[in-house]
């Protein structure tokens, strides 16, 4: 009897840290699934949209108009006047789009529009039937670039885009109470060298 109690106590002690590591992964996966299925209620619980819009907007402007990364280790040359003008006026449009569509209801719409565009353009496959869970999880894992705890209450995950390996999506999840929430999102453009390293990681 005593041995059984000790065994189950040890099992519980091992299960707690394992669950702590697994839950933010599961949250990131579940957010992705909720976007695809249109589960707005889940997205509203799991995403701090005000914080995500604040971080996503600047990175989208930088990505869309090929502007220098202000966080780069080495400062990039100052962009030309025409590029700065395009970024200024185009950035306003990007920020309006972010404000309008980075919401619990807007994200599933963006996903559906993207899928429809890919199918019409011939760069995507129409999925009449949802792939099995294992296949979806396998695809998710294959695009994972890195995942790390920045602190005991902050977890960062980076994934390659499904259609463009040079475009990476970065998300930051934060432990609030007993719940992990997405609090920041960014887009990152990677160079050829980075893409090669990612390809090696896949193998």
What does this structure look like?
- The protein is an alpha+beta fold and 203 residues long.
- It is 58% helix and 18% strand.
- It contains seven helices and four strands.
- The chain has helices at residues 2-37, 40-46, 49-64, 81-101, 106-121, 133-142, 192-202; strands at 144-151, 154-160, 167-176, 179-189.
- It has a four-stranded antiparallel sheet with strand order 1-2-3-4.
- Strand 1 and strand 2 (154-160) form a beta hairpin.
- Helix 1 crosses helix 5 (106-121) and helix 3 (49-64) runs antiparallel to helix 4.
- The radius of gyration is 20 Å and the shape is globular.
- The model is unreliable at 7-13 and 192-203 (pLDDT under 50).
Radius of gyration: 20 Å
Task: Report the count of strand segments.
Answer: 4
- Helical proportion, percent range: 55-70%
Q: State the distance separating the first and last CA atoms.
A: 48 Å
- Provide the succession of SSEs: HHHHHHEEEEH
Strand order of the largest sheet: 1-2-3-4
